[in-house]
Design goal:
10 helices, binds NADP nicotinamide-adenine-dinucleotide phosphate
Length: 302
């Protein structure tokens, strides 16, 4: 039997509607909208396209959004001053510094300068610590892992007592999603294993998974025979495997593929996310959700 396809685009639309309704309600009651600033240093085309997508979504939701684009030679001190300016701006609830930053800037220093209460990306060590503690301590779960958890929960997949195997141990995906799934609470309570390049028998671990989350960045890494029949497979990988001409625009676009052999895997899994159209659309959505949360915290209504 073919797996149920978990469509990130559909789940995204539902969550965005929920956010928009809440934004309108808060605007009516409190006269404020969530304020989000995206700081972009330089003109990296991929970064411009990410920032543009974030801004468009924020605008649609009725956020106050500021795109602050700075020249590539902006000094580290000037960037730190800029972050500080937004830290002290009460109309801004979320600050996002688009990565990668130019080489002469220490990105850790910049990310750590963001007020943890405005760190809607959830990368500040304070928010990483809060995530580790779990429960009410968590303010801003990082966006991609938060999107993954929403997809699992909203698809009705049982997480309590489930064997979750996470392929990859990065700070932005693998470690935080593993940590979130093992917490005590709804959408979690799982038994979690993290595997990586030094793991002895990757296939054996994957085969045990009721929920398999793959974030390795290796196209086709997970084979269909590694998947437990009926398992939920979340493919986080986004790999450029070629180019094609877009039917819509006539321009060259990348052909993307995930870390899982989708066509074969969907015949074994119970649930599976496609690439593109799976986890990808959820990341920006969760950024919007975190920015709304930041406003609610500032109003004392979260
Ligand atoms: P990363 O920092 O490169 O980490 C990759 C992890 O996978 C590492 O822990 C690495 O192990 C592990 N790994 C790599 N090859 C492996 C193999 N053959 N066997 C077992 N483990 C292996 O990557 P990331 O930032 O987490 O991103 C992972 C993928 O997700 C990428 O394709 C990225 O584009 C995608 N992504 C998508 C979104 C989205 O919104 N959809 C967001 C973020 C990332 P070691 O630690 O041992 O090296």
């Amino acid at each position: 039997m073919s797996a149920k396809i978990i469509k990130g685009t559909e789940i995204r639309n539902v969550i965005l509607e929920e956010i928009e309704a809440e934004v309108n309600e808060i605007k009516e009651k409190h006269g404020v909208s969530p304020g989000l600033v995206t700081i972009l240093v330089g003109e990296d085309p991929a970064s411009i396209s990410y920032v543009t997508a974030k801004i468009k979504t924020a605008q649609k939701l009725g956020f106050k959004e500021i795109q602050d684009t700075q020249p590539v030679d902006l000094s580290e001190d000037a960037l730190l001053e800029l972050v500080d300016k937004y830290n002290n701006d009460d109309s801004i609830h979320g600050i996002l510094v688009q990565l990668p930053l130019p080489k002469h800037v220490d990105d850790k220093k910049v990310l750590n300068a963001i007020d943890p209460d405005k760190d809607v990306d959830g990368f500040h060590p304070v928010n990483v610590g809060r995530l580790m503690i779990g429960g009410d301590e968590v303010k801003f779960p990082p966006c991609t892992p938060a999107g993954i958890q929403e997809m699992i929960v909203r698809s009705g997949v049982e997480t309590s007592g489930a064997e979750v195997v996470v392929v990859g141990r990065s700070n932005i995906v693998g470690k935080p999603i593993a940590n979130m799934m093992l917490q005590k609470g709804e959408g979690a309570n799982s038994t979690v294993t993290i595997v990586h390049t030094r793991t002895k028998d990757l296939a054996a671990h994957c085969k045990r998974a009721d929920i398999l989350i793959v974030a390795a960045g290796v196209p086709g890494l997970v084979k269909p025979e590694w998947i437990k029949p009926g398992a939920c497979v979340i493919d986080v990988g986004v790999n450029r495997v070629g180019e094609k001409i877009s039917e819509k625009t006539g321009k060259k676009i990348a052909i993307l593929s995930g870390d899982v052999d989708f066509d074969a895997a969907k015949e074994v899994a119970g649930f599976i996310t496609p690439v593109p159209g799976g986890v990808g659309p959820m990341t920006i959505t969760m950024l919007m959700k975190n920015t709304l949360k930041a406003l609610k915290f500032s109003l004392g209504i979260a």
